[in-house]
Specification:
- The chain has 7 helices and 27 strands.
- The chain is an alpha+beta fold.
- The protein has 2 domains: 24-98; 109-432, 4-Layer Sandwich (Purple Acid Phosphatase, chain A, domain 2).
- An 8-stranded mixed sheet has the order 14-15-16-19-21-20-23-22, with no helix packed on it.
- α3 (149-159) runs parallel beside α4 (193-210) and α6 packs across α7 (317-324).
- The longest helix has 18 residues, at 3-20.
């Protein structure tokens, strides 16, 4: 065979093999790219399959390396990378994808929580005793009308928020979907990347592209439940070790977004119902005592400091007792309290003019029982409720500065963006119409 034919044959084989074998870029996949706000500066984070090295991030047209936060393992076969973004950066991108950065003081703020699809068998009862009324319940994850988080995420992109606040509880798929449940067949479950992707990152993807997030830790992200994934993927503190270690309590931290301040408090392990003798509240007493709040600061805590649940009555005993240990008051300067945990929408204002409590746990998971109580005059944690309102349905709340005289408006929407009602928040009072 002439040598030139051999050369041509070799080139043809090489071309064929090259066409069949994926390139490095083809083998890798950028699963998620997002920005979360922490104590010091925004943190850009990416999740990549098929990679062992982090990509570069371009900040204000200057490429710079990202750091490994967590390497792939059996449960999380993805590389997680991160980089701190300067507070005044105007632009950032990874792999050609623009990242949403905070821009001045956010006025259009959307908030919600408790978003995952409930798959909770009786076998998980002991691992989640604080939501025992939902043991043995399985949500139809494949039906957008029965698990609407993906639709809510798409709706919110159209609202163009400057900041997204998630008040905690991202992963609800704790048990295998039974063969008798048609609406969740084939769903992943457990604290692993397939479940985190299905329950949070895939449905939230358009909203993660649209705005920076404040991500609160919920009781579903305790170390006994989905803490491994939370610390790998969402905890805003930069990794001191790889992978970051799950701890029972993240010390509270303050997020600065322009002139706005948000204190994020980890109440993932606070007890809902306990006596003064059994409550483990000393750590929360210390947390409240060490808080320093500028005027107008919002406190974000997954578990409400004050809240009503139809099945249990009042919650959360541990936090209320922790406050009573310091004369029952929140640090001066806190204007609003935003929480989740109860799977509905609720707002309480108080006769003694302390900050109103919003409960925003209606982001998509199985709803709690509707509240039927008359709020005015109710007692909770030694306080008298002045006004209150609840809504039993999925949706979100958009906060915007009041038109005149300060304060805020809180507008409540269903998950399709349908307007439900609005609340005026001013001088520690809430009036919803």
């Amino acid at each position: 065979m002439p040598s030139r034919w051999i050369t041509l044959l070799a080139l043809s084989i090489a071309s064929l093999v090259g066409g069949l074998a994926p390139t490095t870029s083809q083998a890798q996949k950028l699963e998620a790219a997002y920005v979360i706000l922490g104590a010091q500066a925004p943190v850009a984070r990416v999740v990549i399959t098929g990679a062992t090295q982090c990509p570069t991030i371009t900040i204000d047209n200057t490429p710079q390396p990202m750091s490994i936060r967590a390497e792939a393992d059996a449960d999380f076969p993805v590389l997680v990378c991160e980089a701190r973004v300067p507070n005044r950066a105007a632009s950032a991108s990874v792999e050609g994808q623009a990242l949403p950065l905070p821009n001045g003081t956010p006025d259009a703020i959307v908030a919600f929580g408790d978003t995952g699809c409930r798959l909770k068998g009786i076998d998980t009862f002991l691992r989640g005793a604080d939501d025992r009324e939902d043991a043995g319940k399985f949500q139809d994850c494949d039906d957008p009308s029965r698990w609407p988080f993906a639709q809510l995420s798409k709706t919110l992109v159209g609202a163009k928020p400057a900041l997204v606040i998630h008040v905690g509880d991202y992963l609800y798929r704790e048990s295998r979907c039974p063969a008798t449940e048609a609406g969740c067949q084939g769903s992943p479950h457990g604290d692993n990347w397939p479940t985190w992707k299905a329950d949070f990152f895939a449905p939230a993807e358009p909203l993660l592209r649209a705005a920076p997030w404040i991500v609160t830790r919920g009781n579903h992200e305790s170390c006994e439940r989905a803490g491994k994934g939370y610390f790998r993927l969402l905890n805003p503190a930069l990794a001191g070790q790889t992978p970051p270690r799950c701890t029972d309590l993240i010390p509270h931290y303050t997020v600065a977004a322009g002139a706005r301040r948000f204190i994020v408090m980890d109440t993932s392990s606070a007890e809902d119902q306990c006596s003064p003798r059994t409550c483990d509240n000393a750590k929360y007493t210390a947390e409240f005592a060490s808080m320093e709040a500028e005027p107008g600061t919002w406190l974000i805590s997954h578990r409400p400091v004050w809240g009503f649940n139809q099945a249990w009555g009042t919650i959360t005993d541990a936090l209320q007792q922790a406050l009573q240990a310091r004369r029952g008051t929140l640090p001066e300067g806190i204007e609003l309290v935003l929480s989740g945990h109860i799977h509905l929408w609720e707002v309480l204002s108080f006769a003694d003019q302390r900050p109103p409590q919003f409960v925003l746990g209606n982001g998509g998971t199985l709803l709690s029982e509707p509240l039927t109580i008359q709020f005015t005059g109710q007692q909770i944690g030694g306080l008298e409720v002045k006004r209150g309102r609840s809504y039993h349905g999925w949706g979100y709340t958009q906060f915007a500065p009041g038109d005149t005289g300060g304060g805020w408006t809180a507008t409540v929407y269903d998950f399709t963006g349908g307007l439900l009602f609005g609340c005026r928040v001013k001088a520690a009072d809430v009036d919803c119409r």
